[in-house]
Amino acid sequence: MSDRFELFLTCPKGLEGLLIEEAVGLGLEEAREHTSAVRGMATMETAYRLCLWSRLANRVLLVLKRFPMKDAEDLYHGVLDIEWQDHMLNDGTLAVEFSGHGSGIDNTHFGALKVKDAIVDKLRTPQGDRPSIDKLNPDLRIHLRLDRGEAILSLDLSGHSLHQRGYRLQQGAAPLKENLAAAILIRSGWPRIAAEGGALADPMCGVGTFLVEAAMIAADIAPNLRREQWGFTAWLGHVPALWKKLHEEASERAAAGLAKPPLWIRGYEADPRLIQPGRNNVERAGLSEWIKIYQGEVATFEPRPDQNQKGLVICNPPYGERLGDEASLLYLYQNLGERLRQACLNWEAAVFTGAPDLGKRMGIRSHKQYSFWNGALPCKLLLIKVLPDQFVTGERRTPEQRQAEREQAAYDQAPSEPQERQYNKNGNPIKPAPAPAPVVEQPRLSEGGQMFANRLQKNLKALGKWVKREGIDCYRVYDADMPEYSMAIDLYHDWVHVQEYAAPKSIDPEKASGRMFDALAAIPQALNIDKSRVVVKRRERQSGTKQYERQAAQGKFVEVNEGGVKLLVNLTDYLDTGLFLDHRPMRMRIQKEAAGKRFLNLYCYTATASVHAAKGGARSTTSVDLSKTYLDWARRNLSLNGFSDKNRLEQGDVMAWLEASRDEYDLIFIDPPTFSNSKRMEGIFDVQRDQVQLIDLAMARLATGGVLYFSNNFRKFELEPNLSERYAVEEITAQTIDPDFARNAKIHRAWKITAR
Questions:
Q1: Do the domain assignments include residue 186?
Q2: How far apart are CA 412 and CA 171, in angstroms?
Q3: For 614-665, what is each residue's pLDDT tens digit?
Q4: Which has the closest alpha carbon to 537: 572, 504, 510, 569?
Q5: Is 513:479 a contact under the CB 8 Å cutoff?
Q6: Model confidence at 756, in pLDDT bands (50, 70, 90)?
Q7: Are 62 and 47 in contact (CB under 8 A)?
Q8: Three-state secondary structure along 436-449?
Q9: Are residues 561 and 531 in the same domain?
Q10: pLDDT digits over 611-626, tens only?
Q11: Which of 50, 90, 146, 732 has its CA 20 to 30 A from that of 621?
């Protein structure tokens, strides 16, 4: 074989520029950049060195042959012509990877099969010995790339991808690959900072990938020094003596690096379940003397190396791929910005995020940004020098203001002077006055955010007297009052429930997201609510029972008060909370009219109307619903108020239940869904189509002199006119809309129905 080989180094998209610098530094010649790859010429020594030392490559491919191909036969014969007995034993194991298409090959599996057939046919012995396939740990891993009619056949020297260093056996929910983490560290300037003796801290370290990669860079440890199995281990062209020499040199460099005083490298993680896996990864990497991991929240993050030492804060915050993550993520990024300003002045910071708009919410400017890809997700690396004049306040400041900020920061960091002890006239020491509580810095709102906050405060003030007079604990404070901020905001005691309406397709998603973040930043300040008590959901057009499906599984219930009863709401797990706020007037009406009556609640949901009826002195209540989950919730609501007796809960399809029932009721409430196709019921319920049958069945159970209240929230609903021919029907919608829903009078419609 030749003394020089053509190599392809593959890498994640976006790392090509960094990889070519690294590869040239390790000896690659005639280097050229390709998409997700670097190509060049090298000796076998350089090829081994790249395998051992590349922090950024996925694979090191040694090109065996290039040949033109027009069809599958050209492919087969091009591979067959290689002297495969120079590369592997005829009873060895083999794996083939194929990429690209064209030249009559549009299926990569078929292409790989033709390559495998050619190799096997070449090595088959008269006795029938032939290579077998082993996709996990083959002796030889072959790669063929088809590019515009040219086949490039390569031997994979790396074996398993080089990002698999071997130390990370335990992972978090969304770990960065090791080579991407190394690239981020290099772009962030960590090699320079480490050479200067700087510190490194990760306030959201997960299982410690940044920490380990940073320590290996600082200690001059080859990233794959501990790997035992390589793609060239069983290759017949392998030169063991050359590899041994390079490996021993790397081992000596690692020993010398680890003998130096360790740098201060610390990780903090809020999730206690990740602490031990992170520490285990550090131990497997042999870096326990260099790295320490502690449990800690971002809100209290404060790196504490030696007094005057500076360094790099680096982190990969969550991106928010689930609906409802917006609030917690916004406040997480705000907390991160606050901690950088307050605890990391004159440090450098690097924030890697797949949600750049959230990065803007930190309130601190980045001086550089780099684009990366985390798998298929485009991401940004924000580089920040944490200096006073980097702080974003939402308005342009004068040089005098910046100077004042610098002076204030210097004053805040200076050690305080010891105070002289004071004594009273009796000679006893006077206790100093307690220090004032620290002022919590509120993020400065954008112009849009301030406008939104003003509207919330205006609404809060307008509803204040009514809320206080009626003793209302939970109510709607905003409902898309401003079209560009399309959401509903409800207060549940000291919690805020935000429902974001899906933006129409005509709205730029980036602008819609920006407005949402503006609103979320404004809500805690405007409503004087702790930001940890803001829950966000997205309400879209629902189909079937989707609105009742579980969104999360926290199982956390909050107790609220309404009309003298206590009710349980769940703000996180379902799209609806267990309490329809717009039906408050109807529930209060039922409470006032229920004394001594038999009350029937159909499609009862969590039976809040039944609790009100019991509070009003109902002789009995019966609540019917198909969902066991909601009936269990209803049982808790009744028990919470001491109404477990004389209050029946019935599980069943309402229509079938009414047909089977023979009991009479004096007061009936029906609030049916718009549509239901539950597996527990026969057929499909459609409120517009089935309203007459439903009301007739319910009226058959209504006692003489009784009242039936019927309501629903289907915006296009029209009550069938022929019902008025048989019953006395009065629309009472206006009487069932409280001030907090006055702007949204179509939230529901309601009727009072009695026998003629």
A1: yes
A2: 40
A3: 999 999 999 999 999 999 999 999 999 999 888 999 999 999 999 999 999 9
A4: 572
A5: no
A6: confident
A7: yes
A8: CCCCCCCCCCCHHH
A9: no
A10: 999 999 999 999 999 9
A11: 732
Return the CATH number at 374: 3.40.50.150
* Three-state secondary-structure class, residue 498: strand
Indicate whether 192 and 59 sit together in one domain.
no
Q: Are residues 212 and 348 in the same domain?
A: yes
Which tokens hold the place of 372?
């990366």
Task: Tell me the three state secondary structure of residue 615.
Answer: helix
My answer on whether 285 and 325 are in the same domain is yes
Q: Is residue 333 located within the same domain as residue 472? A: no
Please tell me the total count of domains within the chain.
4
Other residues' Cβ atoms within 10 Å of the Cβ of residue 625: 24
CB neighbourhood size of 662 (10 A):
6
pLDDT in tens, 371-430: 999 988 999 999 999 988 666 544 344 444 444 444 444 433 444 333 444 444 444 444
CA-closest candidate to residue 217, choices 194, 184, 201, 196: 194
Q: 448 is written with which tokens? A: 């849009």
Angle between helices 72-80 and 108-123 in degrees, nearest 10: 30
**Same-domain pairing of 72 and 105:** yes
Is residue 333 a contact partner of residue 366, using CB atoms and an 8 Å limit? Answer: no
Q: Which helix (H) or strand (E) holds 238?
A: none
Q: From 374, 390, 406, give the residue that closes a domain.
A: 390
The mean pLDDT value for 514-541 works out to 86
| Backbone φ and ψ of 125, nearest 5° | -95, 160
| Inside any domain, residue 379 | yes
**Domain shared by 377 and 507, yes or no:** no
The 3-state secondary structure of 518-583, one letter per residue = HHHHHHHHHHCCCHHHEEEEEECCCCCCHHHCECCCCCCCEEEEECCEEEEECCCCECCCCCCHHH
pLDDT tens, 429-460?
A: 444 444 444 344 566 788 889 999 999 999 99
Range of the domain at 320: 178-220+259-390
Strand partners, 729: 753
Residue 655 in any domain: the answer is yes
Provide the CATH number for the domain around residue 503. 3.30.750.80
Q: What is the CB neighbour count within 10 angstroms for residue 110? A: 13
Same domain, 285 and 137: no
The strand pair at 727-731 and 749-755 is best described as antiparallel
Is the model's pTM score more than 0.85?
A: no
Closest CA to 317 of 305, 334, 342: 334
